[in-house]
């Protein structure tokens, strides 16, 4: 297993898919990394040389914010919204949808109460 940014990437995955195991890297970012480093996108993670893996590590460390740093920044942003008492912060604090979704009939995953309403089984 290749270890990049503190994450073990399975050897049997293609390069593009394997990079998405890192929090903060999606398909488009993975493709951009592959293009920048001129790597073969059909290679599997297990077939990469140590030099290729180290170049991926170096690129990610220098150019991207991933894993712990990204999670910390997102948590701090949410905390800031809650502290300044803005609308989005209020929605975060109360566990409601933040981005304008309706809550009358949906939003069960965010609000809870999934099985408490509706027709009861006999």
UniProtKB/TrEMBL annotation:
GO terms for cellular component: cytosol; small ribosomal subunit. Located at the top of the head of the 30S subunit, it contacts several helices of the 16S rRNA. In the 70S ribosome it contacts the 23S rRNA (bridge B1a) and protein L5 of the 50S subunit (bridge B1b), connecting the 2 subunits; these bridges are implicated in subunit movement. Contacts the tRNAs in the A and P-sites. Part of the 30S ribosomal subunit. Forms a loose heterodimer with protein S19. Forms two bridges to the 50S subunit in the 70S ribosome. The keyword Nucleotide-binding does not apply. NCBIfam families: uS13_bact. This is Small ribosomal subunit protein uS13. HAMAP family: Ribosomal_uS13. GO terms for biological process: translation. InterPro entries: Rbsml_uS13_C, Ribosomal_uS13, Ribosomal_uS13-like_H2TH, Ribosomal_uS13_bac-type, Ribosomal_uS13_CS. Residues 93-122 are annotated as: Disordered. Belongs to the universal ribosomal protein uS13 family. Pfam families: Ribosomal_S13 (PF00416). The gene is rpsM. Keywords: Ribonucleoprotein, Ribosomal protein, RNA-binding, rRNA-binding, tRNA-binding. It comes from Calditerrivibrio nitroreducens (strain DSM 19672 / NBRC 101217 / Yu37-1). It comes from the Bacteria. PANTHER family: 30S RIBOSOMAL PROTEIN S13/40S RIBOSOMAL PROTEIN S18, SMALL RIBOSOMAL SUBUNIT PROTEIN US13M. GO terms for molecular function: rRNA binding; structural constituent of ribosome; tRNA binding. Residues 101-122 have a biased composition (Basic residues). The keyword Membrane does not apply.
């Amino acid at each position: 297993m290749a270890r990049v940014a503190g994450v073990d990437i399975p050897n049997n995955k293609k390069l593009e898919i394997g990079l998405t195991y890192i929090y903060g890297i999606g398909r488009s970012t993975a493709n951009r990394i592959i293009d920048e480093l001129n790597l073969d996108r059909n290679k599997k993670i297990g077939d990469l040389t140590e030099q290729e893996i180290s170049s991926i590590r170096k690129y990610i460390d220098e150019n991207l914010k991933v894993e712990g740093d990204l999670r910390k920044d997102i948590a701090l942003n949410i905390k800031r919204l809650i502290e300044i008492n803005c609308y989005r912060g209020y929605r975060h604090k109360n566990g409601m949808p933040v981005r304008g979704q309706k809550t009358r009939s949906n939003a069960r995953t965010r609000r809870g109460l999934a099985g408490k309403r509706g027709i009861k089984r006999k």
